[in-house]
């Protein structure tokens, strides 16, 4: 027996993709500003240390390591967050499909459909 779902169910299950895109853009933008601020602070400290000691080569090695670490961490976090967001979007779509199929099947046909799709439970 097929049951019609209420029209408000579609409105509740529609993901707000605009908000997600804005949050992603803000994360990139603010993260970039934090990285640039960190690099500027390191370069200012480097300049002050070179001016005070006159040692350029030894200090440059330390600065290059710190800047490389900051940039690597930034892009690593961004890539991880991007992958997480992609997986969460796929999970949301799968969840929506499950809810829609469950509403379509109905409670009286659910055990039969589950047995057909997943097989009988082993006790």
Secondary-structure map:
Elements: H1 8-13, H2 17-53, H3 57-105, H4 110-118
Name its key features.
mainly alpha; 123 residues; 4 helices; single chain; 82% helix
What does this entry look like structurally?
This protein is an all-alpha fold. Helices cover 82% and strands 0% of the residues. The chain has helices at 8-13, 17-53, 57-105, 110-118. It is rod-shaped. The mean pLDDT is 77.
Entry summary:
With 123 residues, the chain is mainly α. Helices cover 82% and strands 0% of the residues.
Percent helix, as a range, is over 70%
Beta-strand percent range? under 5%
**What's the N-to-C terminus distance?**
29 Å
Instruction: Provide mean pLDDT, rounded.
Output: 77
Summarize the helix and strand pattern as letters. Answer: HHHH
Low-confidence stretches: none
Radius of gyration: 27 Å
The shape, in one word, is rod-shaped
Judged by helices, strands and strand pairing, the structural class is: mainly alpha
> Can you count the beta strands?
0
Q: Count the DSSP helices.
A: 4
Largest sheet: none
